[in-house]
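Possible race condition, two jobs.
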Amino acid sequence: MMNTSGRKKVALLVPSVLVARGFESVFTDLGEFCVSGVLSDLGNAAEVRMKLGGADVVVVDPVVFEYTLRGNVRSVISQYSDAAVVGLQSISMSDEAWKQYDEVVNIYDAPPVIIRKLRSALSSRTELPKLEGEELSAREKEILVCVAKGMLNKEIADYYNISIYTVITHRKNITRKTGIRTVAGLTVYALLNNLIDYSAIE
C-alpha cells in the first residue's frame, strides 16, 4: 500500500465511482494529495462527519444536492468541516453559485491543473494567521457559543435573525482570530474562556 503520510487529505463528495477513481489516479500519479474518503451523498450524518471532518480539502459535485440547495453547498459542508471546498464543474450553474467555492475544477482539466487548483483552494483557506491580542467581538462570542452547543449555521442564523452568510463570515473571523478550525477545538476554547459551561454541551 502506498505511503500517504504527509499528503494533504481530500474528501470526495461525488456520486460517480468513475470520477472518484479518476481523482485517486491523479493523486497516485502526482503525489501531494490523497483521497481520505469518498461519499456519494450526505445520507449518513455520522459517516459524513467522519469522512469530511479530517479532510484538508472537500471536492463537491453539486449534483449531490437538490437544485434548490446548490447555492448553499458551502454552508452545508461547513457544518461538518472547515476544509477548503472545491466545486466539480460537472453541470451548468450560475456564476454566483460557483463563487461560493474556494476553487472550481472542471472534469476536463488536466491533472497538473487539478493539483494547482487544489493547492490554490488550500492556500486561500490556510492564509488565516492568528491575530494575537485581537479579541472576539460580542457577537462573535455569541456565535462561538452556538457552535460549541452544536447548532448548525442555519439554526444560528434563525436564532439571531441574520443571514446564513453573516454567520459564515462570523465563523471565519472566529477562526482567524483564534487560529482554531475545528468545532471540537472551538468548544474547548469556549470552555477555557468561560463562555460556556460543560452542562450546556452535554
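Job #2 (started ~2 s after job #1):
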Amino acid sequence: MSESLSPLKGKEVLRKLQKAGFNVIRIKGSAHYLFHPIKNRFTSVHIHGGQDIPVPLLRKIVIHQAGLTIEEWNQL
C-alpha cells in the first residue's frame, strides 16, 4: 500500500507537528517557527486563514525539515 500526503490546513499541520514533539519557539505574523529538542530540527508553518498547504510544500515540511516519514505523519 502506497502512503501519500493530502493537503491540510496550516493549523492542522501545526497540531500534528506538536504531537510529534515540536515546540513553537516564536510567531512572527503568519509564520510559526518550531523546534524539536531531541532531533535538533527546525521548521516553520505559515497559517493563512482557511487555506490548505499544498502537497509539495507539505512534503518539504514533513520529510525534509521535520525528518518524519509519511507513515509516521499519517499516524499522528
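The chain has a mean pLDDT of 94.
Logs attached separately.
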